[in-house]
Amino acid sequence: SRGLPLSGKRVLITAGPTHEAIDPVRFLGNRSSGTMGFELAKRAANLGADVVLVSGPTNLNIDHGEINLIKVTTAQEMYDACHQHYNKTDVAICAAAVADYRPKHVAKEKMKKKEGDLQIELERNPDILLSLGEKKTNQFLVGFALETENELENAKGKLQRKNLDAIVLNSLKDDGAGFGGNTNKITFIDKNLDIKTFDLKTKSDVASDIWEEITSRIHA
Ligand code: C5P
């Protein structure tokens, strides 16, 4: 893989949802399919990188010699796996839809239904991307933002607050963008607030575009 744009580079990617246990049979989760993160990992490997892909529960699998797929369940496990590899990482992309909250107490036995309503107390999960931004030395760090209002302003705010080198904005206002589907429509924003908007494309083609933006910046 010598001579490829990412030869010798180590890439860390998060993908998919996280599942936060309520009891042995129930969890809090979301509808992230993991597709965008897996496509980013495949593209990075094809560009010559050594890839660590940390994924929450998905239906996806990957069989590629250059991709180390680490399967996790919870945000805390994803956090731990990321921090284990981060020191040796050149480019990190957080594409996972991490649960912001987890149940404060996990019942040891399956919870029985009772009369009346139920309240489950939630506590905050760590923000993995924020923590990587705080620890950043030479890594090129990229986040995602899925916004429904004031998209550009919110994405720029996130970029600065989380100490990122770039952020990928996908708007729910665009048909075909975001969760579940196989297409996405993105805007790439770097830390100098250079902004580039792309057409609706397959997530595989979106992954190529994102890597083109990143490689042009890490080699510049
Ligand atoms: O702040 P917000 O959740 O909108 O930021 C989204 C970005 O932060 C995504 O890149 C997502 O992967 C990352 N994130 C994270 N850990 C969390 C929450 C979000 O890594 N607990």
UniProtKB/TrEMBL annotation:
EC number: 4.1.1.36, 6.3.2.5
Binding site for CTP: D100, K110, P126, D127, I128, L129, F144, K158, K162
Gene transcribed to yield this protein: coaBC
Protein's name according to its UniProt entry: Coenzyme A biosynthesis bifunctional protein CoaBC
Included stretch of the parent chain: 182 to 401 of 401
Protein role: Catalyzes two steps in the biosynthesis of coenzyme A. In the first step cysteine is conjugated to 4'-phosphopantothenate to form 4-phosphopantothenoylcysteine, in the latter compound is decarboxylated to form 4'-phosphopantotheine. Catalyzes two sequential steps in the biosynthesis of coenzyme A. In the first step cysteine is conjugated to 4'-phosphopantothenate to form 4-phosphopantothenoylcysteine. In the second step the latter compound is decarboxylated to form 4'-phosphopantotheine.
A GO term for molecular function: FMN binding
Domain DNA/pantothenate metabolism flavoprotein C-terminal: 6-216
Taxonomic classification: Bacteria, Pseudomonadati, Bacteroidota, Flavobacteriia, Flavobacteriales
Organism: Flagellimonas aquimarina
Catalyzed chemical reaction(s): (R)-4'-phosphopantothenate + L-cysteine + CTP = N-[(R)-4-phosphopantothenoyl]-L-cysteine + CMP + diphosphate + H(+); N-[(R)-4-phosphopantothenoyl]-L-cysteine + H(+) = (R)-4'-phosphopantetheine + CO2
Record keywords, A-Z: Decarboxylase, Flavoprotein, FMN, Ligase, Lyase, Magnesium, Metal-binding, Multifunctional enzyme
Co-factor requirement: Mg(2+); FMN
